[in-house]
Write a structure and sequence with these properties.
By secondary structure, the chain is an alpha/beta fold. The protein is built from twelve helices and eight strands. A six-stranded parallel beta sheet has the order 4-3-8-7-5-6, sandwiched between helices. The chain has a two-stranded antiparallel sheet with strand order 1-2. Strand 5, helix 6 and strand 6 form a beta-alpha-beta unit.
């Protein structure tokens, strides 16, 4: 039986988003890790939110997670506009990951890195150990960049549980990482965090945007400048869809009130 309570969720376009902040989210994740409770979370940005809106199976996965934080400012804005949640900041995956790494180190909770490349994982571990020499790295398992066979998946679960890790950082990209976390709730005895880009940021392979761009929701523009070919279509389509969905939700809410 789970003793770590889920935070309250509100409905944004059919997706349940958690009303939480960095301190609360960190506390819940580390508490689950310390107790070795299976706990699934994702930091969902606009792209992930719209993926769920247009993919019923993915929405079901996301809505089954214990905690889904508003990774992007536009997601936070939607929560505040539609539900008056009063959130003053987003809960950004890379920043939450870093806070959890520090809190886990102080609590003696082991970390398990699952995903990305060997080089990125090595750099991420080095960054963690530099900041917190007492941090426990229970194991590191780079991505296969393909679906695991049933036998491999069973071995992965056994390896994670045997490692003694309390927090599994999952860096496999959205929506693949959320699907993995959702499929392993109740199987992996740890808090599983679908945090994607956190691996690259903390490994020093992606530069963070200026604070003002983050505050006012223009991080997508920064990312687009770094990877224009890969991200142009995503942002051009996703951002437009988000604005339309928010407009529809606001109109529907006003009509029903």
């Amino acid at each position: 039986m789970t003793t770590v309570a889920r935070p309250e969720k509100v409905d944004v376009f059919g997706v349940g988003l958690s009303v939480t902040d960095y301190a609360d989210a960190t506390e819940r994740i580390v508490a689950a890790g310390k107790a070795h409770e299976s706990f699934g979370m994702s930091a969902l940005a606009t792209h992930g939110l719209m993926e769920a809106v247009h993919d019923e199976s993915f929405m079901e996965v996301v809505n089954g997670l214990d905690m889904v934080t508003c990774d992007g400012q536009p997601v936070r804005w939607a929560m505040n506009i539609l539900h008056k949640t009063g959130l003053t900041d987003r809960v950004y995956g890379p920043d939450l990951t870093w806070k959890v790494c520090g809190a886990a180190a102080d609590a003696g909770v082991g970390l398990y890195l699952f995903g990305s490349t060997p080089e990125t994982c090595d750099a991420f571990v080095a960054a963690i150990k530099k900041e917190w020499p007492h941090a426990i790295i229970s194991d590191v398992q780079p991505d296969r960049f393909r679906d695991a066979t049933p036998e491999e998946d069973a071995a992965d679960v056994e390896r994670m549980n045997a490692s003694g890790a309390g927090v599994v950082l999952v860096g496999r990209g959205c929506p693949r990482q959320e699907r993995w976390v959702g499929a392993h709730q109740g199987r992996v005895n740890a808090a599983m965090m679908a945090v994607g880009a956190a691996f690259d940021y903390h490994a020093g392979q992606l530069r963070k945007p200026p604070a003002l761009m983050q505050k006012y929701g223009f991080e997508w523009l920064w990312r687009l400048g770094l990877e224009p070919k890969r991200l142009f279509k995503r942002y051009a389509v996703t951002n437009s869809q988000y604005v339309l969905e928010l407009g529809k939700a606001v109109i529907a809410q006003r009509r029903s009130s």
